[in-house]
């Protein structure tokens, strides 16, 4: 596992107590890590499993454009934010820029291993083109929903070692590094939303965010399954058997979709906030060098 090259804590002291569930002592730390520079992973880098590899390669292929969209959506709605939220947005942006850099490197390794990611990238580009002329607040609503997905998966990736058991090289470390930073900044888009919609009624706020989550969920899973099957087809793995194996990977073992369902449902509850569940202990679980120092998750 790479060591932390730079740990920049980018939060300012609060001039007033924080309102809402986001922890008052939250630190968003920018860890300038680099992965996969010395040795390229094999084609099926995750436990020699083409299905697991395809799912994560397909997910990674969406991050460079997707995270640039997240950054712009949050920045477009930050006017008038408190000094604390402004500082958290800056830290969020720095983390996302580093994530983009590392997923570009990861995607390049997948390309070098023989995969064509261009169709996935084109599909993401076309989807994002549809957001150019719509209100900035709707792009923030979409970002908030997708950030909840990254937070749910991040929690699961750290809490359940099965997901990256057998990962070759430092590929698993890259995903875990990304995950802990997603946990740290999981409330930034949501707090920006609360700020930007502070004059909305609670009903309007709930309706817009809930409808957007349903739209995002439908598109997210449909496109990621299409992308995964595309990559499996590039390995010559097609037909009902491989569709069933992908379904089992997502719903059965390790079952990322099944396992995040309760957290997904919580998004629709009145009073939801990402920090209603404080899972920062998982960061200690990742970063600790000694089992005795691992915080209980």
From TrEMBL:
Give the InterPro entries listed for this entry.
UCP07580
Residues of the region (Disordered) are 1-26
Keyword annotations: Hydrolase
Q: Is Hydrolase set as a keyword in this record?
A: yes
Where are the annotated coiled coils located? none
The keyword Transmembrane is assigned to this record: no
| GO MF annotations, alphabetized | hydrolase activity
Top-level lineage group: Bacteria
Q: Which PANTHER family match?
A: METAL-DEPENDENT HYDROLASE
Q: What is this protein called?
A: Metal-dependent hydrolase
Name its species: Novosphingobium tardum
């Amino acid at each position: 596992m790479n060591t932390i090259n730079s740990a920049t804590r980018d939060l300012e002291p609060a001039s007033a107590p924080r309102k809402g569930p986001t922890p008052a002592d939250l630190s968003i730390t920018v860890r300038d890590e680099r992965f996969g520079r010395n040795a390229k992973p094999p084609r099926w880098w995750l436990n020699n499993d083409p299905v697991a590899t395809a799912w994560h390669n397909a997910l990674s292929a969406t991050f460079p454009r997707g995270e640039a969209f997240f950054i712009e959506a949050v920045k477009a709605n930050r006017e008038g934010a408190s000094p604390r939220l402004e500082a958290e947005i800056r830290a969020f942006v720095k983390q996302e820029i580093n994530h983009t850099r590392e997923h570009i490197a990861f995607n390049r390794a997948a390309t070098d291993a023989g995969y064509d990611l261009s169709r996935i990238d084109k599909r993401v580009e076309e989807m994002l083109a549809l957001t150019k002329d719509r209100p900035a607040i709707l792009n923030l609503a979409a970002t908030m929903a997708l950030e909840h997905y990254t937070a749910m998966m991040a929690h699961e990736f750290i809490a359940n070692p099965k997901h990256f058991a057998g990962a070759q090289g430092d590929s698993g470390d890259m995903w875990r590094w990304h995950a802990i930073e997603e946990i740290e900044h999981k409330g930034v888009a949501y707090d920006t939303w609360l700020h930007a919609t502070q004059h909305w009624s609670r009903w309007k706020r709930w309706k817009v965010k809930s409808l957007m989550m349903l739209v995002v969920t439908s598109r997210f899973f449909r496109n990621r399954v299409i992308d995964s099957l595309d990559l499996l087809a590039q390995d010559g793995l097609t037909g009902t058997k491989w569709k069933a194996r992908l379904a089992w990977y997502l719903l059965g073992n390790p079952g990322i979709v099944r396992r995040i369902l309760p957290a997904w449902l919580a998004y629709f509850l009145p009073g939801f906030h990402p920090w209603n569940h404080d899972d920062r202990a998982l960061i200690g679980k990742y970063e600790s060098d000694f089992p005795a120092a691992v915080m209980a998750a």
